[in-house]
Every structure is written in C-alpha cells, then in structure tokens.
Amino acid sequence: MGIFVLFFLVLVPLCEQTWGSRYFTIDYNANCFKKDGECFRYISGSIHYFRIPSYYWRDRLLKMYMAGLNAVQIYIPWNFHEPFPGVYDFNGDRDLIHFLNLTSELGLLVIIRAGPYICAEWDMGGLPGWLLNKKNIALRTSDPDYLNAVDSWLSVLLPMLKPKLYNNGGNIISVQVENEYGSFAACDYNYLRHLLHKFQLYLGKDVVLFTTDGDGEGYLRCGSLQELHATVDFGPGGNATKAFELLRKFQPDGPLVNSEYYTGWLDYWGEKHSTTSKELVSQSLVDILETGASVNMYMFEGGTNFGYWNGADFQKTYKPVTTSYDYDAPLSEAGDPTDKLDKIRSVISQFQPVPQGPVPPPTQKLRYGSVSLKKIGSLVDFLDIFTPSHPVETQYPVTFEDVKQYFGFVLYRTRLPRDVLTPTPLSTCSNGVHDRAYIAIDGVFKGLLERDNVSKILVSGKASDWIDVLVENMGRINFGASFNDFKGQVWINGFNLGRYWAARGPQITLYVPVNILKLGENTVVVLELEQAPPDPPSVMFIDKPILNSTVYKSKSSLL
Fold this sequence. Notes:
This protein is α/β, with parallel strands linked by helices. The strands form seven sheets. Strands 4-5-6-7-8-9-10-11 form an eight-stranded parallel barrel, surrounded by five helices. Strands 15-20-17-18 form a four-stranded antiparallel beta sheet, with no helix packed on it. Helix 5 packs parallel to helix 6. The longest helix is centred in the first third of the chain and has 18 residues.
C-alpha cells in the first residue's frame, strides 16, 4: 500500500505577517518607548508641509534624514484643509497623504500634531475663520457649536491617518491631542476628554497619544490628562534636568520627551530678526540627549507664510508674524543647510548612527536682476473684477466673517451724507479696526488707522463723495519684496508670495520658489497699499535673503 503525504499550504498575507511583528508603544516600567520590542528614542525635527511647496518636500525630507534624524514632527492645520464647512482640500500643496508617503519612502518616522488647535504662528492657530460665524462660540472648550465642528473635521482627518499608524504598517508612531492646552485660560478637562474619546474612536486604543505643554507647573496642570502621555517643551539655555523633574510630577513613568526644542525663534514685523547661536543650540541638545530623553527640534525647517497664512500673537500689543518663517532653523527658509545643521548632525552622531555621505547641497539660486513694473491703476479701478456679482450692502459695517471673507482685505464704501468743508476728525472705537484701515475720500488717500493705535484722521469733502475704508486682516491671533517705507502684497503668475513691509522690517525680501516660475513670460503683480512711487518702480530678483534689517534704502522691490 502506498504512503501518501499530504501537504497543506497555508497562505498568510506578507503584509499582515509583517504588521504583526510591528508595534510602537510605551513601556512604563522601563520608562521608554518600545519599537518592535526594543527601547527606542527618537531624535526628530519639525517641518510644516503647509509652508513649503510640495515641489520641495522630498528635497527637505532627504536633508533631514541625512542630518541624522529618525523622525519628523508635523502639524495639521484644520483651516488649510477645510476652507468652508464641509469643503475639504487635500490636493497639490495640501496633499497630506503624499507628504506622509514621502516620509515613509525616506525611512523617517512621523509624529503627528493633529490639533484641532495647533498654534504654529499660523492664522488663528489653524482653526477655521468660519467658526466665528457662530457669534457666541467658545473656541477650545466643550461648547457644543465648537465640538460639533471639531467632530466633523476629526471624522474626516483621523480615518485618513489610521492606515499610516506604525502598528498598522505605516510610520506614524504617535499623535498629539490639542496643543499646549495648559497655556489656554479655559482649562476645560471635559474638552480634553472629549478629544481623547474621538482620537481613540478613530485611531484605536493602542495608538500612543500625547500632550505638549511648557515647562511650568500651571501649564502642565491644565494641559495634561491621565490617559495621555505628557511631554514638555523648552529651548536652549534652560535646565533640562530641572524641566524633566517637573514633568515627572505629572508623568511619573514612561519616556521623557521635549516635544519642542527651539532651534531659533519667529520674527514679528517691526522687531529685530531672531537668532540663536549654533553653539548654544548644540550644547543644550547634548544636555537633553544625555538624560536619555527623546527630542523634537522646532523648527528644523520653518518655511514661508505664503498668502495670508501668517498668524499673530497678543503680548500686551498685537504682533503679526512676518511672511518669512525662517526661524533661524538648521535648514533655511529656502531649505538650505546651515552651519547650525552641521553642529546638530555632529551631536546626533554621538548618540546614534547618522547616514553615510553628505547632506544634499543648497538649491540653486538665480539673480535675475531688475524687472520694470508699470502702474495699471488703483484698487477702486478694478472693483468690477474683484466683485463680479455685486457688493454686499448693509446698513452698518460688518465683519470679515459676516461676508465670508476669512483672509486678506475688505473694502467698505459709503458716501458723505453732507458737505464737510472743514477738516473733521474721523476716528474709530478701540475695537473697531482689525488690523489696519486705509482711508480715502474720493480716491485720495487720507491716512490709516491701526489696531492698538486709535488715532484720528482729518477728512473733508462734498456730499456724495465716496469714503473708502480698506481694512486689512494682518493675521488672526494664535491663541524679498518691498519698497523703502512701503507695504503691500506680491503675486507671481497668480501665486501669492505674501506681505512685504520694509518700513517695519526686519524682513526685506520675499522668497520665490522656482516651481511658480515658467519659461518665457512671467507676470508680477504688486499691490502697494501706502505710498505708490511716482516713478515707475521695479522689482529686483536677487540670490540672497535679507531678513535682518529694519531700514533698507532702495527704489526697487527685492525678490
């Protein structure tokens, strides 16, 4: 009788078998992250995909990888992806999934800061302006109107992220809930618990969720929650040991993390350009890594606040952020490696292997020289183009949000009801202008009003003369192109480069990414708001940025 041997072939999908051996978690007994069973430390850098054209994403990420980082940290700005309620945009420079795919291809892990509030010196901290259409809404609280909008957004965003989680075969190792909530006065724990529930609902209960707050007891008390892993942020020159000792009062076990180690700082219009020495940054990085902590460097590349995306702070006075978000980071605004990057790479090599070979070189910069401009008209000459349907007519002035104009400018027009032959003060209440108002009578500029600078302008005119009040939103508070003494906005081929304001500084030039240029004819449009020059002006394309000047004498724009 023959002997029959039966072979049973069991087919197991390779990807499921691989995922089964992959997991990222926290070992509270060993006080470390566990990646695939081994204690793991990340050395990460922040990069904002929304401040960098997608054309450059791979270049920037490759430089970060070659600098020795094993992870990157990113914010996700809600208002960048949901411009109107229920309208979502994840295409082109907003293609979040494409960006995450690039990080995976380059072998970088990802730390997500999903908000819904992100700060980031971004307009309204990433919250959509349309939230303010609910007049009594209480942002970043358990207010039902706010939570309904948040829940709708998270129901779209978080399912997109779930397949990218490390435990599901992706490269996202942790997700932050809210952002530095301890710095917000509400201290609403029910709000944090609500977010925790939603994050776990969509991402699962095995994902590492965390919070980030300043290294102050009050910040950590209101910003942390028992079910979320608490981390801190602090910059160079501080006492890392002391900061982590304070963290241990709120997070007794688990890995120590500095989620925002500041490599530089942001700039405000009218203030000096911020810099932090490479020696201080590198030495304090050593101090952090010697404690065994994980660290994220904020920023590793800052990028640019193109268009109207810059935010603002309120520290006794209103302080709008410059167009450049260079941040004095290891990679410049244009993505070029700096001496600071070399020092940081040297430090990292003392604690973990860095990739062999050099960091990719700076991208090529071209000095195109001077390009003449011609004046094509005043703003009021093009109202039919700007409002092709019809203007909004109201009895009293209304807000930007009321007319669903969430960025940029609104022109308010009315007529003088009677002759005003004697110059008469035109003033505004203390809460009337956000943030600058340009006043003209029958097309003649008379002056401007600013937030925090309530002044009076003398006006006169005849009955039925137009009064034009052009109000500029300079950037909502977060909870090179310019003429000397001039201020405005620049577009190239329809792409909004952002604001210039050389009279205030410190930024003089605007960054021009190569992907917006084309062979042949290019169109440059300059909206000058304050002092259009009598002579035909020009723009000057140069190959080096000017970010550190408060006075720059020139008859030309610089790009």
